[in-house]
Design goal:
Structural class: alpha+beta
Order of helices and strands: HHEEEEEH
Shape: globular
Largest sheet: 5 strands, mixed
């Protein structure tokens, strides 16, 4: 059975000194905050509310859903179930994250590839290096 695409819920786990289900009720976007506190020994404060910012785009990088911070360039594993982003490096957040409308189909389309080659960008993401160009005779949208 192929390894599924990693999401925050499967990537950020409590330390072995805690029960495996210790963070089961923590929303996906907040798991990274718990993980950074426990693994790096840093005290963090969750963002208080949403910021007025254009939404961020999720992508798959080497078999992980990733969200990049537009403020500082840091990145973290995201959650299609909890479509928010708050940066543990610069404290920016909460920002809405855009995932594809059919997450399961995108993940399934990559399962035949080795995990290190599983990469995907949303066609509408302005940072997509392979973004289709309108009117492109080569097959763009």
């Amino acid at each position: 059975m192929p390894i599924p695409v990693a999401r925050a819920e499967t990537f950020y786990k409590p330390p072995v000194s805690m029960p495996a289900d210790a963070w089961k009720d923590v929303p996906g976007a907040e798991l990274v905050w718990k993980w950074v506190e426990s693994r790096m020994g840093r005290r963090l404060t969750l963002p208080e509310g949403p910021v007025d910012q254009a939404p961020y785009w999720a992508r798959i990088n080497q078999n992980r859903w990733v969200v990049d911070c537009a403020q500082c360039g840091s990145a973290q594993v995201g959650s299609p179930v909890d479509q928010r982003f708050g940066c543990t490096e610069c404290g920016w957040g909460w920002v809405e994250v855009i995932y594809p409308s059919d997450v399961a189909a995108v993940e399934a389309s990559l399962l035949s590839q080795p995990t290190y080659l599983r990469n995907w960008w949303n066609d509408l993401d302005p940072k997509n290096p392979n973004r289709p160009v309108v009117g492109d005779p080569g097959g763009g949208v």
